[in-house]
Design a protein that fits this description.
Length: 99
Amino acid sequence: MTQDQWWIASLGRTVIWARLRVLEAGTAEVFDSDGRTLPYDSEDTARAMLLDAEFVEWAGLDEEDAQMRGFSLETLSPPQADDDAQLRDRMVQVLGARA
């Protein structure tokens, strides 16, 4: 069974998603905003790569962290699609103007 974790980075009003998938064998892969699937030897290695690229785990964010990054947890959620080809176009989102 695979396990998906969503990660997010922000740059101004743009949010960039990454999906970390932990595979049964203990290896991991990251689907990035360019539509590439990058393989890693372990979940720890993949997480370290995401942290180095200034991503944070979506599940670990609270509202204060989100606000500091320029969005609200109530108005943003990980992208959804039927397959990775469709998902690729949803991995970068530009947020609307602040109210």
